[in-house]
Write a structure and sequence with these properties.
The protein is α/β, with parallel strands linked by helices. The chain has 9 helices and 12 strands. The N and C termini lie far apart (about 60 Å).
C-alpha cells in the first residue's frame, strides 16, 4: 500500500536526452515505474526546444550527442532564464575528468557514468530533486559585509544605509561573491553562477561588470579583489569598523 501511494505521489517531470534508443527506453521504464512523468528526445536541438516548451523538474543529459553535444546543451540551458534553474544530471560514457569538470562548472548538478545501475540512477535523481526542493523553500537571507547589506528578496543593495543602484547582472555578481567571501572564482565560474540575461556571456564582459560594480560601490570598491591569472573574490575581512 505504501509503495503504491508513494508512486502515485511522484509527479515530477524528467526530460531524458540520449541518442541511443535502448538507453532511452531503459531509463524511461525505470523512471516511469517510480511514478515520474518522462519525456525522451534523441538530440540536443530537440532537448532545448522541449525544455523551453514544457519546463521539466530535472534533465538527464547524455554528453555524447550528434550535432549539439551535451556540454553545449547544458551551456545553453543554464544561460536561459526560463531553464537556468533546472537541475541537470549528466549521463555519459566519458570518464575523462576534464569532461566531467567542464559539465559541473557549466552548472550540472551531478554526473553518472555508463554503464550504470538503474538503482543508483534513481537514487541520484532523487537527491538532485530534493536539493532543488530545499533550495526553492529556503527564504532568501540578507548578506551583510563590508558595510554592504544585500537583500535578494528585494533585489536591493545598501551601502551604510544608502541605496546603491545596480543592474541585474551586477547584483547577481555581487551577491554571488558576497555569499562566499574569501573564495576566488574564475570568470567562467562567475558566468555560470550568475547567468545574466542583460550582457553577452564572455570573460571580457565579467571584467566590464566588475569595473562598473566598483565604481558604484564607492569606498567599498576595494572589497572586490582581482586575483591575477585566476579571477575575482570578495575580501573576507571587513573594511569598516
Amino acid at each position: 500500500m505504501f509503495r503504491a501511494e508513494r508512486v502515485r505521489m511522484a509527479k515530477e517531470k524528467i526530460l531524458v536526452i540520449d541518442d541511443e534508443e535502448d538507453i532511452l527506453e531503459l531509463v524511461r521504464y525505470n523512471l516511469a515505474k517510480e511514478g515520474y512523468r518522462v519525456s525522451c528526445v534523441l538530440s540536443g536541438e530537440d532537448a532545448l526546444r522541449k525544455a523551453r516548451e514544457d519546463i521539466p523538474d530535472l534533465i538527464l543529459l547524455d554528453l555524447m550527442l550528434p550535432g549539439l553535444d551535451g556540454l553545449d546543451v547544458c551551456r545553453q540551458l543554464k544561460s536561459m532564464q526560463a531553464t537556468s534553474q533546472i537541475p541537470v544530471v549528466m549521463l555519459t560514457a566519458k570518464d575523462d575528468d576534464a569532461d566531467i569538470v567542464a559539465g559541473l562548472e557549466l552548472g550540472a548538478e551531478d554526473y553518472i557514468t555508463k554503464p550504470f545501475s538503474p538503482r543508483i540512477l534513481l537514487a541520484r535523481i532523487k537527491v538532485a530533486l530534493r536539493r532543488k526542493t530545499a533550495g526553492e523553500s529556503e527564504e532568501p537571507t540578507i548578506v551583510k559585509i563590508h558595510g554592504l547589506s544585500i537583500d535578494p528578496s528585494r533585489h536591493e543593495v545598501l551601502l551604510r544605509s544608502e541605496p546603491v543602484s545596480l543592474t541585474t547582472t551586477e547584483f547577481k555578481i555581487l551577491h554571488f561573491l558576497a555569499c562566499r567571501p574569501g573564495r576566488v572564482y574564475s570568470r567562467d565560474q562567475i558566468i555560470s553562477a550568475v547567468k545574466g540575461d542583460d550582457y553577452a556571456v564572455t570573460e571580457r564582459s565579467v571584467d566590464v561588470q566588475i569595473v562598473s560594480l566598483r565604481k558604484k560601490l564607492g569606498d567599498a570598491a576595494d572589497a572586490i579583489e582581482t586575483v591575477r591569472g585566476v579571477g575575482y573574490r570578495l575580501k573576507s575581512r571587513e573594511l569598516f569598523a
